[in-house]
Amino acid sequence: MVANQAATLKGQFLLSMPNLLDPNFHQTVTCICEHSENGAMGFIINRVHHSLTTRDIFEELAIEPRSGLDANPIYLGGPVHLGEIFVLHGPPFNWEASLMITPSLAMSNTRDVLEAIAMGNGPREFIIILGCAGWGPGQLESEIKENAWLNYPIFEENIFDMPVELRWEEAVKKMGIDPSLLSDLAGHA
Questions:
Q1: Total-model pTM
Q2: What does the pLDDT look like over 161-178, one tens digit per residue?
Q3: How much of the chain is helix, strand and coil, in % rounded to 5?
């Protein structure tokens, strides 16, 4: 249970540990967007859909993109709400609905941000995501106690600038941990 704002994981990365065998989360980096006593929600930022691009999303929504803006990858944000589109982005944050995650990162899921991106007038840094990851009350805290996750404050360069295939390893290194030394054994005192 999250007793106060200081105990929240909002604005943190969850880095899956080797013992997390669920194929939805194996070796993932998840950006936590919301965390309260009611549960948590976030987006995996290192899984790309192998056959969809922004062109497909824009076509489905009947949005005509400016040339060159239609071939960006679509990310698989998690196994929940797979039919919903989300945008993880930097400034500006003046869309119909933007949930601030950190002072320089937000999540939006309204048509206006997608139309702006298609026209080249949206956020400079963004990823478009299908689906999300969700945890019920106390579930994420329990998984952390079971050594399924490490957490670390979000750093935006991992989301927008780093090659997808390096995001997990680089996030673990940023924590000061050699990824090859991670164990799947929990340590309990």
A1: 0.89
A2: 899 999 999 999 999 999
A3: 25, 35, 45
